[in-house]
User: Fold Fe2OG dioxygenase domain-containing protein from Phaeodactylum tricornutum.
Amino acid sequence: MNDAIDFRKLWLDEKHRARDKAGGKGTPDSSAPQSSSTPAPTAASISSTDPPETRVRLPVWNGPNLDTLVPCVPVLNHHTHRVPPPAPDSIYYLPHFLPDSWSAPLLTWLQALPSRPPLRANHATDTARQVQGQWTTLTHARRRVALFDARLEPLPPPLLAMAHALVHAGIRFDASHRSGTAPDTPPRLPNHVLINEYQPADGILPHTDGPSYEPCTATLSLGGDVVLRFAPRVHRKEDPRARLTTRPTDAHAVYLSGRGSLVVFRDDAYRDYGHAIRYTDHRYAHDNDDNNNNNHDTETVPTDCYYRADHDTASESLVSALPASPIVRAYRVSLTFRFHKDGTA
Assistant:
């Protein structure tokens, strides 16, 4: 019995539903079966050369067949993949989630996305629609981003396959689901993918992903290695003047491999901790007291940084396995999957 997911049909069904919801003139084909719930995240079935018909012309996928991804990804283990104390118990790290055969083709596909002019601050209201499926430069952050919002258009097949792979791995994008508990609702696919492009010296200031999303973030890393830091938030009741500040002295560091690693954080780690990547270019850094070197492409690795090698053995130690410090930063692209609570764009 063939239980493969037909990603082409899923994409067309989602496109028809999106048009109906937006009040468009398009009418779904009544002969096409409409799915009433998220299909079980098993395998995919779609031609690797069949690009979706979107408003923006997307590059052709030249990687492995999309139906090969789901069976290859590891399943999240809430014990061996959890970042240990003193970090909050809702951060998980899988050092080699994406197969090697996928990493390079995915990076190539992302780099081939079309580009648009930089966004200006006074056009922020249309940001989601403006960057949908396109690279654009954030002038305040000096880096490029691209957005895929399934509330506007269905995810393209490569990202839809990854969304199914994440759910298949046991990652839940649900409001009431607590980490490690038995699922009580059908799995829900993430509907929002944010792509960030980082040059070697680039970072991102402490922030949270905010209340607009369900409290679960899953981020894939491609390219260079980097250290992700989580620090407790200073809440308004403690400092009413603070919009978002953190206690960097209490930060917990996780070493992210660029070979398709996956970091997942949810619940208290999502709500009560800011996360950041340090800038290594001192002209733009505000928190790099430990990066006293003249090479803007290197970063000091904290001695208590959590690290797991790519082979991901359950007995991997914390400090003894750390790579040499400082590490050389390189070009990196991250894919952040979330579920936006608002079902309409």
In short: DSSP finds five helices and 16 strands in the chain. The CA atoms of residues 255 and 307 lie 5 Å apart. Residues 36-177+187-338 form a domain with the Jelly Rolls fold (CATH 2.60.120.590). The longest strand covers residues 226-234.
